[in-house]
Amino acid sequence: LSEQEAFDIEYWLLEEAKLQRMPKPKALAGRIAFITGGAGGIGSAIATRYLTEGAVVVLADIDQASLDEAVAGFGKRFGKDNVRGVLANVTDEGAVEKAFHDSLVEYGGLDILVSNAGISSASPFEDTTLAVWDRNISILATGYFLVSREAYRIMKKQKLGGSMVFIASKNGLAASAGASAYCAAKAAEIHLARCLALEGAPFGIRVNTINPDAVLRGSKIWQGEWRQQRAESNKITEDDLEEFYRNRSLLKRSVFPEDIAEAAFFLAADLSAKSTGNIINVDAGNAISFTR
Ligand code: NAD
């Protein structure tokens, strides 16, 4: 090596080292995210991931007490200007429109929607009342429709594209005995996302779905009747449920809210700029065989 070449290499290595030490820009800096069911287990984990990556976040939920608690917690951790809470029932058309308008007017736009507000319910098919059927269809299928339609209108008008993430379920593809209304509603969410991906593509609006398998920790769904029903139908105790789902999975791993949040981060960020109309199964490998 000539003296000049050695100098050039050393100079280049020093510049590289400086670059490595520079703080990296956060992946969601300047982005505005709206998360329904944001006071729940999966919604809160997604909010945490987005706030950590520099986004500002609106949490929409029907449960005022949980919403207040979540907003106060996030405000303390990430700064109160970076998080807002808005009380809204996703089945109420007027309330959904108002929730978007009120919360986003202040932030000035919308880049990311996470449609996540939901419930679980089980009943043998012949005992499924119209009320149970309607509740599932209205909160899950209709709720996801109303929320994504409003987000779509805003994103299209902004002309800046956007990313929508639907939290559906493994049960939207796999049949589950005794939960036909829930499964049918989750299937509707998945197909709605794919249709919306088609219509949104010319405007840079991407729409993808995450299908979680059972996420017990942190989820309010798993604290009540659902937990008891699942334990009974699998002939195990409620305490053994987590182990049951872990053992049932291909990878023998439990799925946590943070695992869903990681996929939701990928789908919201430019990392997934070339993905739309897709489904990510976060299920420790369960979807590979629906007979398991
Ligand atoms: P969670 O109960 O902890 O959170 C759901 C949140 O949605 C709650 O805060 C609840 O108040 C809110 N919500 C319910 N109905 C609403 C309505 N009409 N309007 C506005 N908000 C409403 O449950 P989670 O486990 O975090 O579930 C989030 C999503 O993930 C749901 O769509 C659920 O179906 C789906 N999912 C969950 C699991 C799981 O095992 N936990 C598995 C697959 C799919």
From TrEMBL:
It comes from the Bacteria. Belongs to the short-chain dehydrogenases/reductases (SDR) family. This is Rhamnulose-1-phosphate aldolase/alcohol dehydrogenase. It comes from Kaistia geumhonensis. The lineage of its organism: Bacteria, Pseudomonadati, Pseudomonadota, Alphaproteobacteria, Hyphomicrobiales. The chain holds residues 407 to 698 of 698 of the full protein.
